[in-house]
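Re: the request from the purification team.
They wanted to know what the chain is likely to look like in 3D before they choose a buffer screen. I agreed to run a prediction and write the result into the notebook, where they can find it.
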Amino acid sequence: ALIDPSAGALLRNQAPRVVEWCVSLLHPSPPVPGEGKWESWEELAPTLEPFLKDQVGGAFLLWMEANSEAITTNKKECSVTLAYGEWKNKVGGPQKYQHKSLKVLRGKYERAAAENAKLVDIMTRTGCHKVLGNTASKL
C-alpha cells in the first residue's frame, strides 16, 4: 500500500506508525536480546492460519489469479467467485501491478517451498498453495 500513490499518501498522513511498521517488515532483523523473540508457528497458527485460509488463500490469491488471467487474455473485466459471492472489477492500471506481483510471489514461493516442507503444508492447508504453487500457469 505504501507504493500506491493514493494509499501511500493516506497512510503517511493519517497513520505514520503503521508506515514505520510496514517499512520495518521490509528487512526484518532478529529480535534484540532481552526485547522479545520471534513467535513460533505453533504460537501464531491459531490466529494466522484462519486468516491465511479465509482472506489470503480463499479470497485475495483467487482474485489475483483471476485478475492475471483476465489481463493475459485481454479481457476488460475480471470475475471470480469467492466464499461471499462473485467479485467483478474492470481490468486497468492498478490490476496490472497485481498481475506482476503474482508472478513474483510464485517465483519466491517456488524457491522457498523447495527447501521447506512445513511451509508447503501450511500453504496447502490454507489454500494458498493452489495459486502460489501453480508455476505451470501461463499467467
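For the purification team: The radius of gyration is 17 Å.
Please add any questions underneath this entry.
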